[in-house]
Specification:
CATH architecture of the largest domain: 2-Layer Sandwich
Structural class: alpha+beta
Number of helices: 16
Number of domains: 3
Largest sheet: 7 strands, antiparallel
Radius of gyration: 64 Å
CATH superfamily of the largest domain: Histidine kinase-like ATPase, C-terminal domain
Strand content: 15-25%
Amino acid sequence: MRWISSSLKRKLSFLLLLSVLIPLLALGLFAYNMAATATEEKAKQSGKSLLRQTGTNLEFIVQDIENMSLFLIGQKDVQQYLSSSGENAVKQTQMIEFLSNLVFSKSYISDITIYPQSQSHPVSNTTIFETELSELTGEDIEHYQSSTKWWTSRYETDTAAGVKQVISLVRPIRSLNSFKQIGTLVISLNEEAVSKLMNQAGISAGGYVVLSNEKGQILSGSDQSRSMMTMEALLPGLTIRGNAGTLNYGHGESKQTILYDTVADVGWRLTGVMPFTEYKAQNNYVLQLMAIVIIFSVLLVAVLVLYFVQRVTNPLIMLTQFLKHSNPEEPMQTYPVETMDEVGQLVRSYNKLSERIEGLTEQVKLEESSKKEADMHALQAQINPHFLYNTLSSIHWMALMNQDEKTADMVGSLSDFMRFSLNNGEEFCSVEQEVAHAGHYANIQSIRFPDKFELIVQVDQELMDLTMLKLLLQPLIENALIHGIQKKAEAGLIKVTAHMQGLFMSFAVEDTGVGIDSVKLAAIYKELHGPDDRKKERDRLERGSYGLRNVHKRLQLHYGAEAGLRIESLDGIGTRVSFSIPMLHEGGKA
């Protein structure tokens, strides 16, 4: 199963072959069962038809014999011969010739014998040496009294033509004048002729036909059953109901189909026996034919499925190999599109994805470069070489020695300002440090521009120990002072606020300066969100508008696109610049 699951081609081939093979085998099994049932039913119908035809032939023979018996008992010469009391050799000879002529055209009649009630000798078309008929009647046939006709069971008789098995019609001959019995007529049906007739019934090989009377005694049959005497001995436990039909007999390999029909007027039953092995032979042929068809179909389906799967998976395999051998350090190459189906759409999507990845790679490289450059500019903009910090520290002490407190205060604030700007090269600081840095800047500017502005700082105490990107507030305060407060004749107010807002820290720098009109505000937004351009950066530096864009880009680079600056302003009233960043603990972790 691992070998199959490791390949899409093998999985598709296996599932498609399985989905086709199972219905095909089910259809083959169903067709085989239908064919086997039809074969059995056809054989039964054919057997019943043959059995009915045999029964019709037997009915014709029985009716012919009975008609002949009626003719003989009413024939004038027969009546005269049986009514005479003495021996009459001439009459006897005439009777023998008469009976011989009747039998000559009837091949199925063994003999016709008339037994007189008087002392006269019986007359027959052949010489009868010995017969078992007396055993059936229980007395000598010459003295046998019977009120009706009847058919005997099979018995043996020895005649001039040899020993024969016969079935006889025994009928009393009565005087036409007194209606007294004057003799007995016996017309014997040759059992061999009956057996030949049943052998010609055409029952399948291994089957046979049996003729029995009402008592279950076997009268005749095909070669396999002639030696049996009763149906119980031949087919033990067989129970037949009705005049005609079919039933199954036995179990397993000895199972047989029984067909039966009735010979009219005499109550005889024709029983045909067909072994199930005959159906099995025909079903085996059907099964072999079905197996050949299924095997051929499976091979054909397998070829078509493999061809189809090959056509579908080849582009995917080639794309996989293409990706496997691609160098991640090099630009992703495009793959040629050869089809318009879903695989072709997949290849097109891959080509678009490769183009998009290449574009994003270039954008990441540009953003990383911009990020480093922005951080460098942020430091350079504050004029923070080490030697300047050391020099300022010396000036601070000299001013204190000369008791120039204002100069000392200004130089001290500038020194602290520079110390924070260096910050050992770290990009992040605490909120408390960032607020202090903004305060140092405001203190320096308040000494430069006395009574020009007032700075108010309102920061939630729980934010002081949290971490943020450094040098964010000071550029905004500088922007408020230069572009807002200094352009007004009267003094102004700059307010810095910071508070928690869910999982974010929200900062705002507000001023009561000249504000920004809507046209200029739209231009500032366009600059903030516009693409990077080195020439434009230099222009912004010259115009002094670099601070806002620098802060905006640094926020987006470090915190995401949603962390940029939001500017609200009313012309002549003031401006509010705000941003929100996630709350980070020391080390930059959320």
